[in-house]
Design goal:
The protein is mainly alpha-helical. The chain has a single domain, classed as Up-down Bundle (Growth Hormone, Chain: A), CATH 1.20.1250. It is 80% helix and 0% strand. Helix 3 runs parallel beside helix 6 and helix 16 packs antiparallel against helix 18. The relative contact order is 0.16.
């Protein structure tokens, strides 16, 4: 088996753990709120604090991955987020939990930008679509498992605090394993054979810049494109806007959907966890379909449309699902419409992150971090908008229609995005 496939599997597992630790607070919300006396608006700030810290430190984390390499940075990321996962079970005040969850977001911010940096060095261009989809599907699978799994873990360990301690310990083990087994470049890995190394070198870039000269020398040269040049690039801005729409839709199912269906359809925690799992599992399928489509169309010579088409179809499905979900009278139909929305929303991930690799080159970590930074401001908005819009309008309808509208705006962005134009040009 090629060693790069083991890298993909390792990144898949890290992505799964990231989302288990991220989404577990949604399943534990009622236990936390009941124990500490928090309102829904209080919990909105606790959940939103993570997304704010996560968003603000995307670009710095991506730059760190470019300078110090994904081996060191990913190990540090795993250690940091695991420590703050455990500390979530220690603090008892609202301000303390908001602070800890903010720092948890800061710690986890480097996860996907660092993965993007590793992919840019380890994967041929023609394999990056399906690779991105597999890695992100690990996150969706992790979030899906977190919904019923954390309910069970709380009962098994004796409380929500102990559940967070347990998850934090797993992350520390993963950090050690990554450090021991991964290397920044395939040229420097103890298990990569000569034929695989040459195949990667010959196919990991289709551009005529000096990226390959640096990589062929077995080193990671610091990126030369400045942060200002990245943030002023038109394609970069369109990628960031469309990612806001994706996160606004998806983060709802990772935060408030569990509580929404539990209260709307009078379910137990176990029933809500079971139903809330299905949209996330559909997200896994959307990831796989989009990743396979990205690589298939790319091999047929349709570079731009290999990224555009899956994203456009995905955003259309997400808009339909979000606008219909609020109209459903039964929990089964609500879950069906939300599953359609998340299936479509997750079709966006592979083309979005693959486009970051296309236009980023040696700046892949910073470019993907910039997109994820602005995009996760959409997730921060979701955490706050859902309860506050309900207080303002007396209904959840405005939230769902706002999400549908943002998805339509994202379709317009993808009609103009050019993956074949690197920032360095």
């Amino acid at each position: 088996m090629p060693v790069r496939y083991l890298l993909i599997f390792g990144a898949f597992l890290i992505s799964m753990l990231m989302w288990i630790d991220r989404a577990c607070i949604a399943a534990a919300k009622d236990d936390i709120a009941g124990d500490l006396g928090f309102s829904d608006n209080d919990m909105a700030w606790i959940m939103g604090a993570f997304t704010l810290g996560y968003a603000l430190f995307q670009v710095p984390s991506g730059k760190l991955a470019g300078h110090f390499g994904p081996r060191t940075v990913m190990a540090g990321v795993c250690i940091a987020w695991s420590i703050f996962t455990g500390l979530t079970g220690v603090v008892r005040s609202l301000a303390g939990l908001v602070g800890v969850r903010f720092l948890f977001g800061v710690g986890e911010a480097g996860g996907y930008p660092t993965t993007a940096q590793a992919i840019s060095s380890w994967l041929p261009v023609q394999e990056r679509g399906i690779t991105n989809s597999l890695i992100f599907s690990g996150g969706r699978l992790g979030a899906a498992l977190a919904m019923p799994g954390v309910v069970w873990l709380i009962a098994f360990t004796g409380g929500w605090q102990q559940a967070f301690f347990f998850l934090g310990g797993i992350g520390l083990f993963v950090a050690i394993a990554w450090w021991l087994l991964f290397r920044d470049l395939p040229e420097n890995h103890f298990a990569v054979g000569e034929s695989e190394k040459q195949f990667i070198i010959e196919n990991r870039s289709k551009r005529s810049d000096n990226q390959e000269a640096d990589l062929d020398a077995g080193k990671l040269a610091p990126p030369k494109t400045t942060l200002g040049e990245i943030l002023l690039n038109p394609t970069m801005w369109m990628l960031m806007v469309q990612y806001v729409a994706h996160n606004f839709t998806f983060f709802f199912v990772a935060t408030w959907y569990f509580s929404y269906i539990k209260e709307s359809y009078d379910l137990t925690s176990e029933q809500a966890g079971f139903y809330a799992m299905f949209p996330l599992l559909c997200g896994v399928l959307g990831n796989w379909l989009a990743g396979a489509t990205v690589d298939f169309l790319y091999r047929k010579g349709h570079w731009n449309w290999s990224r555009r088409l899956p994203a456009i179809v995905g955003f259309v499905l997400a808009a339909i699902g979000m606008s219909l979900c609020i109209q459903m009278d039964t929990v089964v139909m609500s879950v069906t419409m939300m599953s359609l929305a998340i299936f479509g929303s997750d079709m966006v991930l592979s083309p979005s992150w693959t486009t970051c690799l296309d236009i980023g080159g040696k700046n892949a970590g910073a470019v993907s971090g910039a997109m994820n930074m602005i995009g996760n401001l959409g997730a921060f908005s979701t955490a706050l908008a859902f309860p506050y819009l309900k207080d303002w309008a007396g209904s959840h309808e405005p939230f769902f229609y706002l999400a549908a509208g943002l998805n339509i705006v994202a379709v317009l962005m993808w009609l103009a995005i050019r993956p074949d134009r690197p920032i360095s040009d």
